[in-house]
Structure formats: C-alpha cells, structure tokens
UniProtKB/TrEMBL annotation, chains A, B:
Domain 2Fe-2S ferredoxin-type: 2-94
UniProt cross-references to PANTHER family, sorted A to Z: IRON-SULFUR CLUSTER PROTEIN, IRON-SULFUR CLUSTER-BINDING PROTEIN-RELATED
Protein name according to UniProt: ASKHA domain-containing protein
Organism whose genome encodes this protein: Anoxynatronum sibiricum
InterPro entries: 2Fe-2S_ferredoxin-like_sf, 2Fe-2S_ferredoxin-type, Beta-grasp_dom_sf, Corrinoid_activation_enz, Raco-like_middle, Raco-like_middle_sf, RACo_C
CDD domains: fer2
Length: 597, 597
C-alpha cells in the first residue's frame, strides 16, 4: 500500500488508493480543520504537498487558494486523491485553546442526591442465614439492592458504607468512606468540552480539564455532524457517541490523577449540552434536528446509569442530563437561564448565549420566551477567510488609529489569523472609521484622499475591496465577504432580539438587564457588540457577563436535588418561538442587517 | 499440536499436552458425564481408548473400573493425560431425556404486568416542534421514556403501539400490534431446563422446549459447580452465566421458530430456579451457598432488564426472578408451594420436592416451616454403580416375582442402566422380598435354599454381596453400596419430615395431605416411597402429585401481578429450619435409616 508521510509529526500512514487525503488523515486521527466536512466548500483543509507536486489541481482549489499557495504546493486535502507515496505538511497546528472555566455562581444550598451512610453489618449464622441483600436492606432501610451491586460485592468487613442516590442504594464500600464523595460537572459544547471534578462533601471544584470536542473530525458544526450521521447510517451514532465518551473518560482520568482520587469514587456526573450533543452523547438519533420541523427525539432531563453510555466511574454511578426546550434551545441554554436566575426574576431580562447559534430568552415579568438565531460561525472565527479559533496566535482585538492598526494577539505571538472577538472588533472599527458603510460595503478607495490615514488600509483584489489587517509577506486580509458574514450574524441575532420584544409587547427601554452567557460571549465586549449593532445602543450599559453558565448549571444540578427540579420546571416554562415561522420575520431581518453609524 | 479423534462423532480436536483428557473434551464441548467434576472419585467419565493403548493406567482406574473394561481400553478421562495423537470412543450417549412439562395449575385471574395500548401520534410542525419523547409521553400518559427506547426507535408511522410493564413504557411498535404479546416461563433445574412460550393474550402455552442444563460440564450437582466457581475465580461467574443464558436463548429461538413468532415480541420472562442456579443466572457469586452458614447473596424476587443478563428478547423486556427463602429453599420450591396453594390452606399439608436435595414445607394451619435435606443424587440415578439418568434405556421400574425379575425400560430398549425411579423400585422390591434387611444389608446367600426363587439373584463379588438385576454378557448389578446410597437418602428425607412435624407439634395422623412436586417426584410412586420407608406408611393414601410446579409457578407469576405479590409474601412467611442445627437431629437421622419390614 502507498504511504503518506506527515513531515512535522514524523508519522507515516499507509492507505488504499481511492479515498481523498482528508479522509485518510481523519481516519488516522490526524487533525485537519474541515468545517464543511470535506465538501470542497470552506477552503480550510489545507495541506502542503512537499517535493515535486504529484497531484492534479482542481478548479475549486484554484478558486479557494491564493496563487502563491498553489505555487508552494498547498492543496485542499478533501480534493486531493493520492495514488502513490507522498509527503505532506499539516498547515494548522493544534494549539493550546483558551477556555474559560470560571464564571458567576449564584448562592444556593447544597443538597446533592448522592450521600453516604456507614453501618455495622451482622454476620450470618447457621441459625440466621440471612442473605447479604437482606442484611444490607435491613441496616440501610433500602427496599432492594441493584443487581450490579449484588454482582460486584463480596464485602467481608463488618463496617460498611452505603452510597445512596436519593433513596436508591447505588454503591457499597468497605469501611467508613463517608468523607469521600465525588461528582463531575460537564459542559459539552459543539467545539469545546469542559469538565470539573467536584468534592461533593464541600462543593469545591478541585480540578478542571477541557479539550476540543473530538467529534470535530465529523464536522465543526452541528449540522455537518448531523449530515455525517445521515450519510453513515450503519455506525455513525456509535462513532459519535464513542468519541465524546472516550474524551470525557480521558478528562475524568486526568482530573482524578491530579487529585489522586479513584474514579470509582465518582457517583454522579451532571451534564449540560446543546440538544444535538446530548443526542450524540446518549447514542440517540439526532437527524431529525437537522431538518424542518426540527423535532428532536427528546428534550426532557434524563437520569441514567453512567455504565449505560460507557462512562468509567463508580459502577452504580448516575448521569444526570439537564433538560432542553427544543432542538435549538438546549440544556446548555436552560442551564444558563437558571444560572442567570430567570426562574426567579420579576424584572425584564434578556439572556443571550452567542455562538454559532445565538440563543435568547426574554423574561417578561417572569414569562419566558425563547428563540434561536442561526448566526453562523463567523463570530467564532469560522467562515472568515483569515479566521481561526481562539488559540495562541489569534488576533482577539483590533484598534484602528491614525497611526496605524493595533492588534492584540492571544499569547502575544506573531498573528496567524483572527478569532471571533477579533473579527467583531475589526468590523466595529471598520464601521467606526467609516471604512464600511451602513449597508455593509467597503467604501471606494477613490473616495479617500491619499493622505488619509485609512488610504493604505483598503486594497483591491480584482474588483473586490478588502481591508489589510496586517501587511507583510503573509498578509492578513478582511474581505468584503468576511464583513458580510458578520453582517448576517448581526442580522440574525438582532432580529431575534426584536422578535422576542415584539412578542412580549416590550420596548427596549423597558429592559432591565441583558445577560451575556457562554465562554465565547465573555470575549465579546459591550463596545464591539453595540458598535457592530449586534445589540442596540440602548442596552450597552445593561450588559452582565456570566461566563460558562452551561458548566455552572451542570455543577449546581450536581450539588442539589432542588436545583434539578427547578431547572426542569424552568425548561417547561420556556416558550419557544421559531423565528422563520414568525410573522413578518423577513422584513425585520432585512432591517436588522443595517450597520449603525 | 497432537490431536484427539472421537470415533463415533467423526470429530478431531487439537490440544496442547498437559491437560487431562476430560478437560480437553469439555473445553471442546464434547459431553462426558463427570459428576465429581474430574476429581477421580465417581468413576463415570469413562472413554474407550482405541488401538494400541498408549496411556498409563493409574491405581485409581484399576479400582474404579472392571478388569474387562481395563482390558478393552476403557479409561477414566480425568485420569488420562494424553501426549500424542489418540483415537477414543465416548461411552455415554446423550440420549433423549424424559422431561415432564405439564402439571397441575390452580385457577387464577390473568392480570399480566405486560399490556399494550394503541394510539395515533401527531406529527410535529414548525409551530409545534414537540420532541418524539414528549409526543409519546403525552399520548400514553407516561412519565418518561427509557433511554433504550429513545436509542432504538425511529417510528415514522402515525399509528403506534406502546408496550407497558405496569406503568413503565418498555416498548414501541409501529402499527397496531395489540394482538401479539408473548412471554416465557422458565424452570432452571440443576439438571434440566424447561421453558414455555406463553401467549399472554390468552394465557395459552403455545410451545415448550427443554434441555439438559449445559452447566453440567462444571459438575452435575450444585456443590460441584460452586467448587468450580471457587477454583476458577477469574472467570467462572461469567462462564456459568454464559452457559445458562446461551441455553435459554437457544430454547426461546426454538420455540419462536415453532410458532413463527419474532423473539422481539417477548416482553417478559419469568424464572424459577433453586438459589444457586438463580445466582449463576444473574452472574452473582454463589460461593457462600457452599459453606456454613449457607448465607446466599440474595433471596428476594428480582425484576431486571432481560438485556442486563443477555437474554435475546425485546430490548425493553423484563425478567422476573421468583423469590427464594434461603440457600436451600429456592424460588423453585417457593413456586411449588404457591402452586400447592400453601398460601391459602388451613389444613395441615406437607409439600415435598424430591431431588438431590429434598425440600419440604409443612403448613401447620397456615404456619409454614421449611427445611432441606441432603438426600444426595441416588434418587436421581446418580452415585449408583449402574445408575443413569431418566433417558432411553434406563430401567424405571423393577418387579421381583417368583418367575424372575421384570424390568420396565424407558423407550422399551435393551436396558443400559437404572434411573432414580428404577433404583427406588429395586430397593423397595429387595426389602419386600426380604433380600435386604431392615438395617440395609443384603441377606447372606447361604440363608436361602438353592431352590428359592431368590437364590440366583444374589451373588458375591469377593466378600461383597450384590443383586443381579440383569444377568447377561454385560450384567446390571445393584451393589450393597447402592442400597446404602438409597438408605442415606431415605434417612435424610424422613428425618426432615419428622423434624418438621416435631417443630410443629404435629402427629402424622394429623396430616391432611402430602404434595409431591417436581418432574422427578412425579416418577416416584406411592408404593415405592412408602415401600422403601422414605415416607411413612400412614401418608400413603394422602399423596398428591403436582408435576413441575417450578415452571407452573413461573407461568402463574408471568400471567399475574397479584400472583407475583402473593409469591413474594409466601416466601417471606416461610420459616427455615437448618436440620443440622436442630436439636437431637443425629438421633432422629439414625432412626430414620432403618428400612421398613
């Protein structure tokens, strides 16, 4: 079989000719960014083919790649079908990603479902041959023992600790172990997984771990992964579940190792995730989420055995999955709404979680309306020509001044691209400085005086105007198309905002607070949100940033039975509005596309 | 690797030298009877080594085998350690076994836990994106859907049938399938497995299947299998469970095939078994049953998912395991007591299930006392020199007349051995004709006149007297040791009988009825039971035969929620008396050894 040599990883993989290069690399767990999942659309799956270039160059590649890239051997791996030995260089590096694991936590009483009781067990005698189960049930007042406990335990000790989940006996440990109860709170994002190991005796977060969602190899966004599921009906559900479960098991292992804790002492795992990720996690068909009428298989909270999905914790451990409202208002958003205290507020509060989808919940004196806007991945740095995720080397802020362009780069490195907050800052600056007009178009270069400090910032690529973010041998450019992507995101989010207000018969000045949730939202400053018109000027002093509310909600549910109940009630109270089906939506959307200024 | 050729099966198996022949054969699923599980004690695992005999003959073999057997190449396979290619002949044939699948069934109301409801499902719309789970829960009034149902089902049809177990939704089927509900009732005996496929709409038994318990390869009786479990701690629990589950799956397949029914339509399996078999079935450690104080891991009834133990039926199907009382009063006996209506009787009734253990329950005006006597396997034809199981060729009845010995043989074949009912009949006849004295010893041949019709029936083997059941080139003999085995069984059972009466302060003539349960008990006639003194003369006209009450009890539990509850209450009401620990037991036992006459 021919081989592919991956230079900088010192790896080689053998392959059977026929598959494209991207498929071969992904199958061998070699990461290549491919937002469109190998459809030849996004132009992100670049690799450099080394040596004499043996591969045919397609028209699509010529269109999506720059000429100097083509000349230096860069190809789109999804369009290369190798036939012989080749050597390549992977162009994206998997860099340390910036993930926020902290955030606002409201005060609440700890009353976890998991608790322990210690007891002395009487030994059976010839006169009283009481079974092990009966002895245990008698001392603990339990109704019966789970089969798994009967299968596992041969406890000869007389001192024994029973682990309970509510009234159910879920574990037995020899000796007195009442001091050791652990749980895990998890936020499964489409992009990022965040886990926290919790000492359930004290409620303290004693370790955290995070990683990029390994399902990325099946596509970067929810819809691409659903498409993968549809295209591979024989085993995709198992694959998608396996990837996420494996990753969680690894992170739990890492945290337990840090704290020198046995994973068998973890008795509950509490999980928030969007609706699709929750379906994938539980091995449930998510395809109906991908097409109208977007009816998911389930939205209710679930309490299952960790073993049922393959999580490696205590044998009797439970997994609590927070409830969702609809296909696009997932448990992550419900968790956020709970952390934002929407179940209690009597004020008018808008909760917003900005990501690929912008989810919003409006509390109108306690009445809850929700919607989800297809913002697209632009605000996360995707679908942007120089876009990159928020990792080292990403431009996260931009200032245009008379003396030039100031860039703030994560890790203070040489910039390699622009992430979500960076593109938003850049567009805001383009609007502020008048380089981009209200309709989203770049101004004509000839309208500027050559002495204008902005003159050199605009250049022409053929007939297309573009903004030079950084000029060098490898320039970073913001194209007209990039601005359009941000504009579409803005239109989607702002129109959702107005539809909710309209439905609630509320004026903007009646809003008391706007809560910004999500680890991504935390990087979007009020200046940039208002400056690009994603949110209207009137709310600029009402913004409150909550951080990763999804993980916080999972943590609170883990630590309290009452919180679980309240979160479930909250999910039931939220009404969901499908924007596309709401009256006059197209008109509102068109108006919302207009930039401020 | 050297090979073993099995002549009549036209099979050959390769092996690594080191293991004994029995181990090699068992590992290759070739049946060799080995009651002592390869300990070189029982002398039953005979094989004939063909050709020049290449194997060393041990002293044990010389003792346990007859000279003409040794000369013709017969060896005990557990004592042969082959080193090269050999050809053998298996001496026992696996013959059709005689299993009783019918018996007395008291009338009762059908109210199975499993039931179905048909409904029309509304399709989701863009305005009402209700999840699949919510739609289902709404129409069926269910609280939530099991994860397995969410994982499995993608029902596009609008007509849908919900399968319920009590209030739990356990299955969904497309269309209206309310006419098809099936269940299975099972009796797991140490020796025999009996299954029945039940149409739960009508309560009719529509198919049956039975087979020898495949765990026999780990020993013929409970204690030998427990010893196997102890000796092989790494995987014996899994092996023992696997064998029984595989066998049940095969029988279910066979019954479904007979009736042209899909096994996925079976929603409940109800199982009675002795305590050890139930532990093995559920993959629970049974070793504590093997040693004092005989405390099992569990005795309570269990309702688990069929999937948890690997039964191949509907994905959401449940398994109900009937409750036991103690290590040696298992769910099979509780089932029998229920079928014998011990929960209701106001009379004085003795229930007795005769097998390797004789289990007895005495109802003293509704108060229930139970005990278990170690009768040994003699009454099942084991531990008897010419013993065989109740299969074709087994002598099942014996009459001694002045004109000779009349034998009744199963299948009307040439006799190959004597089964339980046969050995009992033979001993009864030996007592009746005075050939065996009250103390169990054969009379001296010299006490008989040479003209006596009994003269030729007694012969001497060295100094030992023995009874010639059939004289021919391959004679069938009943030895003094065989009579002793029956005597021990008699002593064990009768002493249990008296201890129960004593505990209840009851005289024999106060007994109203004696119920004989079990497929084996059904073959033991009142004449033989009383004639050998296993039961006293006074009860001979009070015997009632119930047949396989274990399976019947499982069937009744399957068909009624109320029966399940009553059986569980019955088990709780039974007091268990450990004979060995009861006062003056040795003396009673010694008295009970005396034969009548």
């Amino acid at each position: 079989m021919p081989k592919i040599f991956i230079k900088e990883q010192h790896k080689e993989v053998a392959y059977s000719p026929g598959e494209n290069l991207l498929e071969i690399l992904v199958a061998n767990d070699i990461f290549v960014d491919n937002p469109c999942n190998g459809k030849g659309l996004c132009g992100k799956c670049k690799v450099k083919v080394l040596g004499e270039n043996p591969t045919f160059i397609s028209e699509t590649e010529k269109k999506l790649l720059k000429k100097n890239e083509v000349d230096s051997g860069v190809r789109l791996s999804c369009l290369v079908i190798p036939r012989e030995d080749i050597a390549i260089e992977i162009m994206q590096k998997e860099t340390n990603h910036q993930v926020l694991t902290t955030g606002y936590v409201p005060t609440f009483d700890f009353q976890p479902a998991v608790h322990k009781m210690v007891f002395e067990l009487k030994k059976p005698t010839l006169e009283n041959q009481m079974s092990f189960e009966d002895s245990i049930c008698n001392v603990f007042g339990a109704k019966e023992m789970d089969l798994r406990l009967l299968q596992m335990h041969r406890i000869a000790e007389e001192t024994i600790t029973g682990v309970f989940h509510g009234e159910d006996l879920i574990g037995l440990e020899a000796g007195d172990t009442t001091d050791f109860i652990y749980g895990v709170a998890i936020d499964i994002g489409t992009t990022t997984l965040v886990t926290a190991l919790i000492d359930m005796k004290t409620g303290a977060e004693i370790a955290t771990a995070s990683m990029i969602n390994p399902q990325k190899k099946f596509g970067l966004d929810v819809l691409t992964r659903i498409t993968y599921e549809i295209d591979n009906p024989e085993n995709s559900k198992e694959q998608l579940q396996h990837e996420i479960v494996k990753a969680i098991n690894e992170m739990i292992g890492e945290m337990c190792h840090q704290c020198n804790i046995d994973r068998k002492n973890i008795y509950e795992v509490s999980i928030a995730a969007n609706c699709t990720m929750m379906h994938f996690l539980l091995g449930v068909d998510a395809t109906s989420i991908g097409t109208a009428p977007y009816s998911p298989v389930f939205v209710r909270a679930k309490m299952i055995l960790a073993k049922e999905i393959g999580l490696e914790v205590a044998a009797g451990a439970k997994v609590y999955c927070l409830p969702a409202v609809s296909a696009y208002i997932g448990a992550d958003v419900v968790a956020g709404a709970y952390v934002g205290q929407l179940q209690n507020v009597q004020e008018n509060v808008l909760f917003i979680d900005i990501g690929t989808n912008g989810e919003m919940i409006l509390s109108n004196h306690g009445e809850l309306l929700s919607c989800s806007c297809a913002a697209g991945p632009a605000l996360e740095g995707m679908n942007i020509s120089a876009g990159t995720r928020a990792a080292e080397g990403a431009i996260e802020d931009v200032k245009i001044t008379e003396s030039g362009i100031e860039l703030k780069v994560i890790g203070n490195q040489e910039p390699i691209g622009v992430c979500g907050s960076g593109i938003l800052a850049a567009v805001k600056e383009l609007i502020r400085t008048g380089l981009v007009r209200k309709n989203g178009a770049f101004i004509k270069k000839e309208m500027l005086d050559t002495s204008d400090y902005r003159y050199d910032m605009i250049q022409l690529d053929g007939k297309k105007r573009e903004f030079v973010l950084k000029s060098s041998s490898e320039p970073l450019i913001i194209t007209q198309e990039d601005v359009r992507q941000v504009q579409l995101a803005k239109g989607a989010i702002l129109s959702g905002f107005y539809v909710l207000l309209q439905q609630a018969n509320m004026r903007i000045n009646q809003l008391d607070k706007v809560l910004i949730a999500g680890q991504f939202g935390a990087h979007l400053s009020a200046d940039n949100l208002v400056g690009t018109g994603i949110l209207p000027e009137e709310v600029s002093d009402k913004l409150v940033y909550l951080g990763n509310t999804s993980k916080t909600g999972a943590y609170m549910a883990l630590m309290s039975v009452a919180v679980k109940k309240q979160i479930e009630e909250l999910a039931c109270r939220m009404e969901y509005i499908e924007l596309g089906a709401s009256e006059g939506y197209e008109k509102i959307f068109a108006q919302c596309l207009i930039f401020p200024g």
